[in-house]
What we know:
The chain is 31% helix and 21% strand. By secondary structure, the protein is α/β, with parallel strands linked by helices. Helix 7 (241-263) packs across helix 9. It binds zinc ion. Zinc ion binds at residues 14, 100, 102, 174, 193.
Amino acid sequence: MRSLLTYFLLIVFCFSSISAHSSLIKGNNKHKNTQDVVIKTEKVAGSVYVLFGQGGNIGVSAGKDGILIIDDQFINLADKIKSALKDLGSDTPRFVFNTHWHGDHTGGNPIFGQNSIIIAQENVRKRLSTDSTRRGQQIKALPPVGLPMITYGQGLSIHFNGEEIRAVHFPNGHTDGDTIIFFTGSNVVHLGDDFFAGKFPFVDLESGGSVSGLIQNIDALTKQIPADAKLIPGHGAVSNLNDLKTYHQTLVETTGIVRKQMDNKKSLDEIKKTGLPAKYKDWGTGFIKTDAWIETIYKSYSLNMKK
Ligand SMILES: [Zn+2]
């Protein structure tokens, strides 16, 4: 089981680009301790596996057609990820999907892009190919070899290892480039960072994410995902449809609580002081603490009062 510190390090990079939450970031530890990271492989179902390391969970399709992966964590972990993939058949994936642009999901692209075809929604390529600055912190564009070679607007399918692997873009949730990947035969769904298992989510308002968009997307997903499917979240343990429904319910309820106070003209500080009911305490024990979640909701709905 990963320690809390590891969990913190694992997702810190994801948040390090975001000024809305930068006050919560305790230093840029993105590459610290990567030598201690152990990549753990777990079978999910059918041809699908998940690799846990440091950063977003890596989905893997392994079989007669070779290896396809979803996200690739950090560049310093590429060798360890390759060695874990070798145990599943080959250290060279034929395809790499990026669920979104954050560095804890795309950091390995410059290595994997040398021999694999990287695929992502078009906004992911746009963001990865541009330098950006957030609160004085420079985020460098990836070199061309690390950029998605194939992009799409709405989605695409790859027919691989005996099943259709369907990538579907869900707009403006965690970011503006999110993709959900459905392994239609293995009955597994990789939800990227639209799903933080059992924790309040990070919503990247500066990259086109929104709380209302995320709630809509999760609502739609709870209606399309089969009841017995296995779900790979962006961060956290392999989950099921009931876990996703609980997550959706929690997002709806906590957002409703905050918005009601916004309607009553309460300030952000006042709403934070009131906090959320005790039943949500555990949801605020991940990277996004209760205060940060309240702030995200407040800012997201202040930015777009119509939603
Ligand atoms: Zn992310």
